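Listing S7. Sequence submitted for prediction.
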Amino acid sequence: MKTIWKVPLYQDMATTSAELPVGAIPVHVALQNDTLCIWCRVDTEQPRSTIMFEVIGTGHLEPRGKTYIGSVQRPPFVWHVYYSGPSDEVV
């Protein structure tokens, strides 16, 4: 079954790991009730794998080998979210 899952992310230059179905596609990054979250389109019938999301602040080095997903303003900061997984299947 295809659906959308939400993953709360650690902020302040941190990495969050999540167990998501293989092939998960990040579709949106935003604040929800002051929590930075990412929403991913998933196929719940696929096996799960560990996906890593990294949050960095403006002006910091971009993480190597990761794919940019989006940015969120949380004054006075702007956070940038990157993704990496077993096969980096971001579409």
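Caption to Listing S7: primary sequence and predicted structure tokens for the chain studied. The radius of gyration is 13 Å. The chain has one domain: 2-84.
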